[in-house]
Write a structure and sequence with these properties.
disordered N terminus; Aminopeptidase; 2 domains; elongated; two-stranded antiparallel sheet; single chain; alpha+beta; 14-stranded mixed beta sheet
Length: 360
C-alpha cells in the first residue's frame, strides 16, 4: 500500500543553492535566501508601530513549515506577481509569521502552487491581533494587485491548532468559503511503544517480520533511487502513478538535505532483498510527514509497511518530533474505507485538512 498522492511537486531545473536560508547544519543563515526566482515585486510596509510586512525580501527565518520556506517558494515561482509575505518585528528584524501566494493566472492566487499545503506559519510568538492584522493586510494587498480569487490549502488542524484556528476564523469572517476538505491522519509521539498503539493484527505481522529476520533501517540519501523504484512499482501495480519523478525527488532531497529522510525494510540482515520503502519529510522540526511508502510484491502476508512504520515511529521519537503525519485517506472529501482502516489500525487518528476560497 502507498499513501499520500496529494503532493504534486514539479521541481524546476534551477541549480540548487543554500536550502531555505539555512547553513549545512540546518540553522537559519545570516542573510536572506539568494536563490533565483520570478517574484520581482519587493517592498516593506509598516503594519503597526512595532511590525513591518516584507514582500519578496526572503529574509531567513526559523520554524517555517517546509512549504513556506523561501527556497521552496522560489523553486516554484513562475510569475512576477507572486507574493511571499513575512511579518517582521522591527526591533530585532525577527520574522514572526509567513505566508506565500503564487499567481496561477486569470486573477487567481493560490497558497501554494506546489506542496501538500500552504497557508500561514507563525514562526514565533506574536499577539493574535497582530497575526490577524498581518493576514488581513496580505489578503487585501492581493486584491489591490488584481486578485479576483484566492485559494488557500491549510495544514491539518492538528499541526498548529491555535494560529491555524485563528486564521480560519479570519478567512470565514472575510467571506471565504470551504472549497475542499480531506481526512488527514496523524499520531502524537509520546512515550508509548508503537506496538501498544496499533491493532493486534499489525502486532502479529510485525512479530512475524522480526521472527523471519526482516530488518528496518534509516537510509543514506544515496538510496533514494531504489527506494523510489520500489514505491513506483507498488503504485503501478495499483494503477496510480507517482506525482514526482526520481530526478525531481533527488532535486528535492538536494535542496532540503536536512528535511528529506529515507527508510527501508529488508528481508535479510545483509539488506539484499527490499521488503518496503518510505520517503518522509520533516515539515517542521516537530512534524515528520510520510510522503510515500509501499511494499514489494508477494509480501502481503508479512505487511512489511507495518514493520517499517514501527521503525519510522521510533525514528520520530528519537529525533524529537511530536507528530507523525501519514497524510490523507480521502479524495475530494470522500473517505477511502480501506485506507482509513489501514491508517487507524496503525494507530493514526483523523483530523481535518481544509481548503478555502476567497472571491473578490
Amino acid at each position: 500500500m502507498v499513501l499520500n498522492p496529494d503532493f504534486p511537486v514539479a521541481m524546476t531545473e534551477r541549480p540548487p543553492d543554500q536550502a531555505c536560508g539555512r547553513d549545512a547544519a540546518g540553522q537559519p543563515s545570516a542573510g536572506p535566501d539568494s536563490s533565483p526566482a520570478h517574484a520581482t515585486e519587493r517592498g516593506v510596509q509598516a503594519l503597526d508601530e512595532r511590525h513591518d510586512v516584507h514582500v519578496n525580501t526572503f529574509l531567513a527565518a526559523s520554524n517555517n513549515h517546509l512549504f513556506n520556506e523561501p527556497r521552496f517558494f522560489r523553486l516554484h515561482s513562475v510569475s512576477s506577481k507572486d507574493v511571499y509575505a513575512q511579518l517582521v518585528r522591527r526591533a530585532d528584524s525577527r520574522v514572526v509569521a509567513t505566508i506565500g501566494f503564487h499567481d496561477v493566472g486569470a486573477g487567481v492566487f493560490t497558497s501554494l502552487r506546489r506542496g501538500t499545503f500552504g497557508g500561514l506559519t507563525q514562526n514565533h510568538a506574536v499577539e493574535p491581533t497582530v497575526l490577524e492584522a498581518f493576514a488581513g493586510h496580505v489578503l487585501d494587498d492581493l486584491r489591490s494587485r488584481g486578485a479576483t480569487s484566492v485559494d488557500i490549502r491549510c495544514a491539518p488542524l492538528t499541526h498548529d491548532p491555535a494560529p491555524l484556528s485563528a486564521f480560519i476564523n479570519l478567512l470565514l469572517r472575510r467571506g471565504a468559503v470551504v472549497s475542499g476538505h480531506e481526512l488527514n491522519f496523524d499520531m502524537t509521539i509520546d512515550d508509548r511503544a508503537f506496538a501498544d498503539r496499533i491493532d493486534y493484527g499489525n502486532v502479529k505481522r510485525i512479530r512475524k517480520c522480526a521472527r523471519e529476520g526482516f530488518v528496518a533501517r534509516t537510509l543514506a540519501p544515496s538510496h533514494h533511487a531504489p527506494a523510489y523504484d520500489l514505491i513506483r512499482d507498488n503504485r503501478a501495480r495499483r494503477g496510480y502513478p507517482l506525482t514526482m519523478s526520481v530526478e525531481q525527488m533527488g532535486e528535492m532531497a538536494a535542496a532540503f538535505p536536512d528535511r528529506v529522510h529515507y527508510f527501508g525494510a529488508f528481508c535479510d540482515e545483509a539488506a539484499t532483498q527490499w521488503a518496503a520503502a518510505a520517503i518522509c519529510m520533516a515539515i517542521t522540526p516537530a512534524i515528520l510527514y510520510v510522503f510515500y511508502w509501499g511494499d514489494a510484491p508477494d509480501l502481503g502476508s508479512y505487511s512489511p509497511v507495518a514493520f517499517l512504520a514501527a521503525h519510522i515511529h521510533d525514528f520520530a521519537r528519537e529525533h524529537g518530533f511530536r507528530l507523525l503525519d501519514a497524510g490523507t485517506a480521502s479524495s475530494n472529501g470522500k473517505p477511502n474505507p480501506g485506507l482509513v482502516a489501514f491508517k487507524r489500525n496503525l494507530g493514526f487518528t483523523e483530523s481535518l485538512k481544509l481548503s478555502f476560497r476567497e472571491a473578490h
